[in-house]
Amino acid sequence: MNFRFLLLCLVLVVQCCNGDANVGKKELENHFGVEEGNLESVESVLLKLKKLAHQRVYGDREFGHDAAEDSKKPVAISVEQPTVAKAVSPYLFEGDIFLSKKQAISILKEASNIPVNSRTRGRGRRSFDSSPESKWPITAPIKYTFHESLDFFAISNIIKAIRYWENVTCLTFENTPGISDTEDHIEFFQGQGCYSMIGRNGGRQGVSIGENCVKEGVIEHEIGHALGMWHQQSRPDAQSYIKVLSDFILPSYVSDFMQRDKDIDTLGIPYDLGSVMHYGGTAFSADQTSKTLVTRDPLYQSTIGQRETLSFFDIETINKAYCPGMDGFL
User: Fold this and answer.
1) What is the distance between the alpha carbons of residues 5 and 26, in angstroms, rounded to a whole number?
2) pLDDT higher for 135 or 328?
3) Which residues are catalytic?
4) Residue 136: enclosing H or E segment and its boundaries?
5) Tens-digit pLDDT profile for residues 233-252
6) What is the DSSP code (8-state) at residue 280?
7) Closest by alpha carbon to 194, among 206, 208, 205?
8) Which domain holds residue 167?
9) 54 assigned ligand-binding residue
10) Which of 132, 219, 266, 273 could form a disulfide with 125 if both were Cys (CB 3.0 to 4.6 A apart)?
């Protein structure tokens, strides 16, 4: 009887895990223009990246054991954003970025070329993806839609976040219900947490605004990704302003602090501890309280990870990238 009971429990656990995975996969397929097989490719590449970073930081320590233990724990990039949903976690980079297959392969290639003794160092200047194909055209409004999964409150705050981006940059947005999936546009939907793609990827691309992601600053953060912004602490000059405490990071997530070589423009904008795109001090913390990022100036420790609103330099980044001759606020 005990054996049958244990076997039943095991079956239920496996079904539960598979169910979570299927929910995440279905969500991504439904809200992004994902070609067949690309999800599995992205998941595979991210797993390779995790193993690579883990080996460089922890040597021969077993990755599989750490990954299994870490999967039981909540993960967040800031205390002001909800935890990353397990259903979509295997497909996300740095906690809230859904990479295209091309982006994922490029990042793995860059990481593979970093000398082993560099640990987590070696990334080029990267805060904005300035490749022409990743930028939205400014000759017409950026089109967007609202999925039926969103409630009135979420839609209201998304509109406020969009209006703020419009008020402080040259960008404009247009709600276009019924737009074809093949036309470039953003689809806001209530998914498993908060996440987005980096820049324009073609066709329909989702921005997930989960039920606990409706704070305007969080929405501005995810729109920032969709416009081409990466996380602030990934810049090569970050170590002049922050220290990464790898001893307190969930071991299988150390790749989310890994810096890379590829040169992507910072547009000459200073490092910004107050950026809405910055990790919080306990990002990917093993116990959710120990600090994984410490500011070299302790006065700024409580500033990193803020999700109140865009900073001056967040706005300047987009204005320099999209709006020639414009700096800072309009």
Assistant:
1) 31
2) 135
3) 222
4) none
5) 988 788 899 999 999 999 99
6) P
7) 208
8) 1-330
9) no
10) 266
